[in-house]
Here is the input.
Amino acid sequence: MIKITKRKQILIKKINLNQEYNIKKAIKILKKYQTNNFVESIDVSMNLGIDPKKTEQTIRGATILPHGLGKKIKIAVFTQGKNIEIAKQYGADIAGSLDIVSILKNKKNSFDVIIASPDTMHIVSTLGPILGPRGLMPNIKTGTITEDIKTAVKNAKKGNIRYKNDKNGIIHTTIGKINFTDDQIYDNLKTLITEIKKLKPKNSKGNFIKKLILSSTMGCGIIIDLNSVI
Here is the structure.
């Protein structure tokens, strides 16, 4: 049984968890009940009208949010030759090939994005058991396996979020921080929704986005009225 904190018990009494809220009102509610202990993240759960058991309906992608994520993105790049200096020049925290494997294996060193040029994937693939569970394995679809190291690093620094539906057909991702303005949070969410709608499988029937929930790190999930944001 999941234990509900006293703070969440209070929030549950103040927020109708079964009601659909206009997106603008939902953002104001999250801000009103934010914690003072730290700057919370704004998270999104999007229930999609797909069959997650069918690989052709898997939704996976990456999107650059207009207002970023509100945090410093830590980037590691697997590449060779002149691309190592290019990666560092444009903001990568570390760049190399075999020489950075030990850094990635150390659990104390956490990274938000791993980028790789195709000629180093034979090295990166050996880190699959480490990067896979963390959702960090480079992938062509998310632009993290690429020859264009410069663009990949620049995009990651801007707030290039990656997403993939889980086994229940739900996408979970972060779209910013609670201290963003209301319009910044709305813009980031709108951008994410627009990009995900472009990925709708041809054989997906009915409403593609079935349910949308917005929450903060320490807050409750608020159901969003889809008409207010789609």
Remarks:
- The chain has two domains: 18-59+165-228, 75-159.
- Strands lie at 20-21, 41-48, 60-64, 75-78, 94-96, 113-116, 160-164, 170-177, 209-216, 222-224.
- The helical segments are 6-14, 23-32, 82-89, 101-105, 121-124, 128-131, 149-159, 182-197.
- The chain has a mean pLDDT of 90.
